[in-house]
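JOB MANIFEST
job_type = single_chain_structure
chain_count = 1
residues = 182
[input]
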Amino acid sequence: MSKVKQLLDNYREHISVPWQTDRSAAQRVIFCVYPEYMELRLRARLDEFEIATKAAVHDWALFDMTDMFPSWMETRKRYVGRNFESPQTLLTALPKFKLYIAEQFELFCKEKCVSENDVVAVAGVGSLFGFLKVKDVVDLIAPMVPGRLVVFFPGSYESNNYRLLDAYDGWGYLAIPITSDQ
């Protein structure tokens, strides 16, 4: 069985269990962890995660972060030249990038009328690597989702520690891990 199929089966099993309503935002987060080399295969099968979610009688909304950085840079046209000439100047602006993501996510949730029975899935978090920590972004957006926030996470999980793209920048997090292991 492929790792994506195993991840899908594990997700299906988890998402079909009745949800407890008294969970904090951090406890409503689910990380679907898969090897980074499986990114394209996973993306090709995201619709199957949606089908599994709907079969469990929950609605689904997919928020893709892949193009967030270029989209944000587009809003900063007057600074782009300076950022390319002196990339270190971008470091001071990255907190604004995090807020931009949160604003876009909030607009998305309002547009989709997200409820406590919905899954908001987030793909493309690997594109944040080198700019922001996924944990910081998740901490900011999780309270905006009254249902479940599912983060498709290319990396690894071991002993309550997540590592994006299998890099050394790992952290512990309260999220429920769903892995591609049996």
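[summary]
Residues 82 and 88 are 10 Å apart (CA to CA).
The beta strands are 29-34, 59-64, 118-123, 148-158, 161-164, 170-172, 176-179.
exit_status = 0
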